[in-house]
Write a structure and sequence with these properties.
Keywords: ATP-binding, Helicase, Hydrolase, Nucleotide-binding. The chain is an alpha+beta fold and 747 residues long. It is built from 33 helices and 8 strands. The chain has 4 domains: 1-166, no CATH class; 170-310, no CATH class; 322-413, no CATH class; 485-664, no CATH class. β1 (493-495) and β2 (501-503) form a beta hairpin. It is globular.
């Protein structure tokens, strides 16, 4: 099911809408244009839910029609009250709100108009989300609820929503932490202990019912995490799998991601998430090991892992510097070493080593691998990661989990900026045809994507730039995919009788490669592990019409081309079917980007661009000197040496160019990356507003502390009349009344 191409959701026609059962019901009960409506009947809601929504397995078409008929505004919410609330009622409202978000239309307006019963409704949703057995709420229904909650957490700018969500994500949610961990966190920030004691005092004043309700709200997210872990563990490593469970897990990780990527929700939740060891459970789960069904889950999980370790101080919201991150890492390792030295004689070697010698993943696994589960549990409990192991009892945790918990927490991590600098800027075949990252044009908004979201708020400037970097990179990848598919399918690569490739067609924007050689791999800069530059020569035979030949010869410095390897499996003369997957039909294996340095003359020198006319070259063979991406080259070579993979750079057989106007993506990405490598990019007065915090009007010049009292306009205005004409609707005050003296320059 996962590999079926996404279908385009076609909007239904008027006659189809009128023929639907939903429309007939709407005309009786809630359509705005009907004068005499029947009175409210909760059975209608039950009917619509079971017959239309559940029976069609939540088909977008049915829900789209309901939303189009204004079901939520004119029937559901208008008549909602605690007395008529039921499972079908709650689920119908959630489906409608989710549909509004899918269609990108304002969703909360109805609730703002009649906010009375919203708190009760929200409480019912929370209770329904925690239901353990599938008989009450199926997993598909619980996934709908998760999506609804996700929309709530992403709508904190709406006062009504914020009022309800605030209870779930404020400081009292730390009640769900283990007592030892809580103590450790409060010790770090003395100010918090004051607040904590206040919360305790207030709790004592509450009556029993209020206290119970507060208790449920505070523990809601940690209970939801526990419920998710039990669903995750019920997925087998192999054999048949319930896709409902997979979708539930994907949506859940998406919810966690959105909570982590917003400062107001992250502030206290990050500690709770860390205390639940969710990321470790996920990486060790069967779903993560299933290649096909777990692919999207793993991508979302990588994003979650990135955000859980994001370089930001959760309490203050300030970005952490490289030094502060290193200090945090060293503190963690040294506290582990102290625990080892004090209580575990078998770890003396580890306790007395220097940090750099023991903080890689391999060395930690080597040191802690031989220990028993009980010892590992004790180490973890000394670090307040797990509850204390009672004397004489065995640990209930698996050894694999305990080892991963200690290793993933203490291994050396690459800083965000280093990760970015080591990233290739050109997309490769792995990204170009990955539906989760670069969806086809028919993305209907149903599934979840492993993409960063552009919200109203961002964690830090780095986060803001990084999300834009990733999204821009993938947007340009989508266009590149279309260009490659177009050019390569026009060239009609077929399998020749001798096992090679034969091209049955031709393309204006692509040519077969005659020869390709890497001519220079420069030494790395100090502190980097990738070459400073990598250059190669590509030879093609331009036996084509003159105007196309001119286009190829007109390739200029910095133009981006793509080197492609195809190994077709179809015999000569096979027709290409546009409906079937492109990669299988053409046998496309590799795609790598490169940047033109110039064309070579007869002596093998690069023809420089300048005023003098270009030399006329004889024959049809042309050779181009190109720059390859050093990061990509480094990754490919490492893969060849360590895993015995084939050398990508000896296989290319097509070079493809793109229209210069659409081809500036590499320059844009490089600029964003350079911006992220510089220290201060944005002035203080604009910083918070870009990240979506504070008062938007505070950046207005009238609110600035250092306003300029006078400004010399020099020769901007030619005369007093020109000055007056430049400010229509304003009254110009003059210091001298004599017109003869009213001459520029004005101040």
């Amino acid at each position: 099911a996962a590999s079926a191409p996404p279908k385009k959701v076609v909007a239904p026609t008027v006659s189809q809408i009128n023929a639907e059962y939903v429309t007939q019901l709407a005309n009786k009960y809630w359509a705005p244009h009907v004068k005499k409506k029947l009175s409210f009947d909760s059975k209608v809601i039950e009917d619509v839910y079971t017959k239309e929504i559940v029976r069609s397995k939540f088909a977008i078409r049915k829900i789209m029609l309901l939303e189009f008929s204004q079901y939520l505004e004119n029937y559901l919410w208008m008549n909602y009250s605690p007395e008529v609330s039921s499972k079908a009622y709650l689920m119908s409202i959630c489906c409608m709100v989710n549909e509004k978000f899918r269609e990108n239309v304002p969703a909360w307006e109805t609730f703002k108009k009649k906010p009375v019963h919203f708190p009760f409704f929200f409480k019912c949703i929370l209770e329904a989300s925690l239901v353990e057995n599938d008989s009450e709420y199926s997993l598909h229904e619980q996934t709908v609820l998760l999506l609804f909650l996700d929309h709530c957490f992403n709508s904190l700018e709406v006062d009504l929503i914020r009022g309800q969500v605030q209870q779930l994500i404020s400081l009292p949610m730390w009640m769900a932490l283990q007592p030892k961990r809580l103590e450790q966190e409060l010790k770090k920030t003395p100010k918090l202990r004051k607040f904590w004691n206040l919360i305790k005092k207030n709790d004592e004043k509450m009556d029993e019912e209020t206290r119970m309700r507060a208790y449920q709200e505070r523990r809601f997210l940690s209970q939801l995490i526990q419920k998710f872990i039990s669903v995750l563990k019920s997925i087998p490593v192999s054999g048949p799998i319930s896709m409902d469970k997979v979708h539930y897990c994907e949506r859940f990780i998406e919810l966690m991601l959105d909570l982590e990527a917003l400062l107001p929700t992250r502030r206290w939740f990050n500690t709770v998430l860390d205390d639940s060891h969710l990321v470790v459970h996920c990486y060790l789960s069967s779903l993560a090991k299933r290649e096909k069904e777990g692919h999207l889950f793993c991508q979302l999980l990588d994003m979650l892992k990135f955000y859980t370790g994001f370089e930001i101080n959760d309490q203050t919201g300030n970005a952490l510097t490289e030094n502060e991150m290193t200090t945090i890492h060293y503190d963690r390792i040294t506290s582990l070493q102290r625990a080892a030295f004090a209580h575990f004689p078998e770890l003396y070697d580890f306790a007395l080593s220097n940090v750099a010698a023991v903080d890689t993943r391999d060395s930690l696994v080597k040191l802690f691998g031989p220990l028993s589960s009980n010892v590992l549990h004790q180490v973890a409990s000394y670090l307040c990661l797990l509850p204390t192991l009672p004397d004489g009892q065995d640990s209930t945790y698996e050894k694999e989990f305990l080892l991963e918990l200690l290793v993933s927490r203490h291994e050396r991590r690459i800083s965000q900026i280093q990760q970015l600098n080591q990233m290739p800027l050109y997309p490769t075949e792995k990204i170009i045809w990955d539906e989760n990252i670069v969806p086809t044009e028919y993305y209907s908004g149903e599934g979840c994507l492993a993409l960063p979201k552009l919200n109203l708020q961002f964690l830090t400037l780095h986060d803001y730039l990084l999300r834009n970097f990733n999204l821009f990179r993938l947007e340009s990848t989508y266009e590149i995919r279309q260009d490659i598919e177009d050019s390569v399918s026009r060239m009609k690569p077929w399998l020749s009788e001798y096992g090679g490739v034969v091209f049955g067609g031709w393309a204006r924007m692509a040519q077969p490669i005659v020869s390709f050689t890497v001519v220079e791999v420069a030494k790395p800069n100090i502190g980097e592990n990738w070459p400073m530059r990598v250059r190669a020569d590509v030879t093609i035979n331009l036996n084509v019409r003159d105007n196309i030949k001119d286009e190829w010869e007109g390739l200029r410095k910095h133009d981006v081309c793509f080197l492609i390897t195809v190994r077709p499996t179809q015999p000569y003369g096979t027709k290409f079917d546009r409906r079937r997957p492109f990669v299988e039909q053409t046998g496309l294996v590799y795609v790598r980007g490169c940047e033109i340095q110039g064309m070579l003359d007869e002596k093998g020198r690069v023809i420089e661009e300048g005023p003098e006319p270009k030399p006329r070259l004889k024959g049809d063979c042309r050779t181009y000197r190109v720059f390859l991406d050093p990061n990509q080259y480094q990754q490919d070579m490492t893969n060849t040496i360590q895993n015995g993979a084939e050398d990508v750079y000896e296989t290319f057989n097509i070079i493809m160019r793109r229209k210069p106007k659409e081809n500036n993506f590499k320059a844009v990405l490089e600029t964003i990356r350079n911006l992220m490598n510089t220290d201060c990019v944005v002035p203080d007065w604009l910083h918070d507003i870009i990240l979506g915090y504070g008062d938007p009007s505070s950046a207005h010049y009238s609110k600035m502390p250092n306003q300029i009292a006078t400004l010399d306009f020099n020769d901007t205005f030619l005369s007093i009349d020109h000055l007056k004409a430049s400010f229509p609707g304003y009254n110009i005050k003059v210091t001298v009344d004599n017109p003869a003296l009213q001459i520029p320059p004005f101040r």
